[in-house]
Amino acid sequence: MNDFLAAAVQLTSSQDPEINFNAAEEQIDLAARRGADLVGLPENFAFMGEDSRRLELASDLAERCSRFLVTMARRYQVVLLGGGFPAPVGDGSRTLNRAELVDRDGQLLARYDKIHLFDVDLPDGNTYRESATVNAGQELPPVVDVPGLCKVGLSICYDVRFPELYRHLVGAGADLLMIPAAFTAFTGKDHWQVLLQARAIENTAYVLAPAQTGQHYGRRHSHGHALVIDPWGTVLADAGVLPGAAIAPVNTAHQGHVRDQMPSLRHRRPALF
Ligand SMILES: O=C(O)CNC(=O)[C@H](CS)NC(=O)CCC(=O)C(=O)O
């Protein structure tokens, strides 16, 4: 594992993929100029809108997203995560919610289809039924040893509420947990930072959490606060509520130091569970 700069991009994605791709490129460009080696885009970076429109666009959008990630990674020479885009399945009436991690040379390093779907009625009157149009992925997310960086584990958004997924990633050697999201404003204000810090602390791992922010369409508001968190749980960078990025150093010696000082991973009692 080397030392490098990681960027968690924050966007207000809309129903217009053209605008969204341009906004994403602007933030990738800025992050690369600031020296970022690893850049994460949030869930729904290319489209944030009504389900019916998402399904209409899905087959075209999935291809465009994969191509966009390859083009951007090469153009800006960064390792790039597309934190979630619709990939059509079957006759195209349903999708997977897919993340892809691409190397600087455009090579696909890892792919993950979200396994926990957000089917929740919130007290603010908003109802979410991700499973109405999305199929759950059937495989645990991968950990990939990114050449020149570190071992990166993937996940998406609502996954953050399932600590066993991150235990799996850390068991597979992850140093850094990617948690790209489009967290609701309502849940985000109480849960977002707490959950992310918990995942960092309990796994003594870096957390990179790109985010959606602001109003997208209708009543859909996202919480923002893209974060980079260190293995002690300290928030190293917070993108606030405007489009931008949280950028901070990932430091190998520091992770080793934290893991020596707080050896909780070594104190697990798997035999009792
Ligand atoms: O709606 C779309 O356009 C695409 N999908 C999403 O934004 C996903 C599923 S609805 N959002 C979440 O998982 C939010 C989780 C969350 O906010 C929490 O766990 O509190």
From TrEMBL:
Stretches the record annotates as Disordered: 253-273
> Family per UniProt?
Belongs to the carbon-nitrogen hydrolase superfamily. NIT1/NIT2 family.
Keywords, alphabetical: Hydrolase
The name on file for this protein is Possible nitrilase
Report the superkingdom from the record: Bacteria
> What Gene3D superfamilies does the record point to?
Carbon-nitrogen hydrolase
Identify the species of origin. Answer: Parasynechococcus marenigrum (strain WH8102)
Matches recorded under CDD domains? nit
Q: Does this entry carry the keyword Glycoprotein?
A: no
The record's GO molecular-function terms, alphabetically, read: hydrolase activity, acting on carbon-nitrogen (but not peptide) bonds, in linear amides
Q: Does the keyword Disulfide bond apply?
A: no
UniProt xrefs under PROSITE patterns: CN_HYDROLASE, UPF0012
Q: CN hydrolase domain: which residues?
A: 4-252
